[in-house]
Structures are given as C-alpha cells and as structure tokens.
Design brief:
The chain is α/β, with parallel strands linked by helices. It has helices at residues 4-12, 16-27, 36-63, 84-90, 94-97, 112-125, 135-148, 151-159, 176-189, 213-221, 237-247, and strands at residues 101-106, 130-134, 163-167, 194-199, 227-232. It is built from 11 helices and 5 strands. Helix 9 (176-189) runs parallel beside helix 10.
Length: 249
C-alpha cells in the first residue's frame, strides 16, 4: 500500500515516471524479489528515461521539420550515389562538434529535404538544438524582422542553434539586402555552429545568383569550405512512392 502523502510529494517534485513505476512495483509481486536498491534504481532510471524522451520531443518540435524523417528510413541503395558508411558516420553528428557543414544536392524529388531532416532529427536525438528553415520564406522573415525591429533578436536566436537547415537553397536569385542578411547569419555562426544546405542548384552556379560579387565571395567562403558534400542521384522519390502506392491499390 502506497501512502497518499508519498504520492503527493512525488507529484510536487514532478516525478511522474517515478510515481507510475512505484504503482507498478506495488501491484506486481515479482518486484519483491529485488533488493531495495535495485527497485530504487529502476524507478530512478524510469524517471531519467522519461525526462530524456521529453527533452528529445521538445527539440524535435522546436526544429519544425516539415516531414518526419529518420536515418533508419533512408534509402541508401547504390543507385542513389550515397556512401552508406559516410551517412552512418554523419548520423553520429561529430561534424556538429567540429562546426562543419553539409551540402545536399540533387535534382528535384531525389530526397534532399528528407535527407536534411533525417540528419537534423539525428542531431536532435543526440541533444543538439536544430532549426529547419525554407530559404525563401526565411529571407522574407529576415526582411520583415528588419522592419519591425526584431532583426537582431532573430539573428541572435539563430546563432544559438547547433544546426541550421536551409532547404531549397538558391532556388531564386538572392536580392542585395538578403545577401547582406545571409552574410550576417553566417558570420555569427562561422566556426562554432553547423549548417545543412539542401539545393538543386550546383555549387558552381551559386556565385552568379548573388547581385554583388564581393558579398557573394564572402558568403560562400563561410559555407563551402570544410563541408561534406552529398549528391543524390536516381529517379524522383515522389514518383517512386507514387508507383509503390499504385501497386498496392
């Protein structure tokens, strides 16, 4: 019989998993075979696991991934041009500790966004703070932040992200003001935070999409060096998924 006073104290201490485990131990006679220390260790372990899971879910929610993607669900077949060993190595996120970047390129529909979100999700699960951004919408947000006075606060928030994902990078030419914004962003993050860039535009074409050559060189200098480059090959994953769905109807 568990006293209500004990349960109330555990509630005050915000130990919900501990409380649930204590109820389980009280109702299951097999726990009587364990020592006091063994039973206490199980309860503490349950609480630690619950808190870790909660923090992970909070990081995943804050990252705002548009799709649920995991490393385990990646298609690493040879025809996609991916090095399985490298992808699994990147999943351990040592590149984040070294403030390195990842550029994921490939044709439309080859799974670039999924790859970026899978790597971002892996980082979240390992305790890193991640933020997903669609590049065009993000540049619009920066422009609006300039007007409403929240520009510096937004840059400061992004500078604290361990991993920043910029999806659909360079889809459109970048205006001058947006180029200056990107330089500010990468200046803040250079050498202490990582960025994942997903793009269908080859790196060799980036330079021409900036309006100012000097700013373009400054921005690219902070991105392309010390970077892992993944080039996805093969047919559109959306088309393949469509075929698979049709085959089961």
């Amino acid at each position: 019989m568990i006293s209500q006073t004990l349960m109330d104290k555990l509630r005050q201490l915000r130990l919900p998993a501990f409380r649930e485990g204590l109820h389980e131990q009280a109702s299951n006679p097999h726990y009587a075979e364990l020592t006091f220390e063994e039973r206490l260790l199980l309860l503490v372990d349950m609480e630690c696991t619950r808190r870790l899971d909660n923090r992970t879910q909070q990081r995943l929610k804050m990252a705002a991934f548009p799709i649920r993607a995991t490393i385990e669900d990646l298609d690493l077949s040879p025809e996609r041009g991916l090095d399985r060993r490298l992808i699994l190595e990147l999943a351990h996120c040592h590149w984040v500790d070294k403030a390195l970047n990842i550029i994921i390129s490939g044709a439309t529909g080859t799974g670039k966004s999924y790859m970026a979100c899978a790597l971002g999700s892996a980082a979240c699960r390992l305790g890193y703070k991640v933020q997903y951004l669609h590049t065009a919408r993000f540049l619009h947000s920066l422009n609006m932040a300039r007007k409403d006075g929240s520009y510096l606060q937004l840059l400061q928030t992004l500078s604290k992200m361990d991993v920043l994902i910029l999806d659909d990078w360079m889809r459109d030419p970048v205006p001058l003001t947006a180029t200056q914004d990107l330089l500010e962003l990468f200046d803040d993050r250079y050498a202490h935070a990582s960025t994942i860039i997903s793009t269908q535009v080859p790196i060799s074409d980036w330079y021409a999409r900036f309006p100012d050559p000097t700013l373009a060189e400054a921005v690219l200098d902070r991105i392309v060096h010390s970077t892992y480059q993944l080039n996805l090959l093969g047919d559109s994953q959306r088309k393949l998924r469509g075929f698979r769905s049709m085959s089961h109807t």
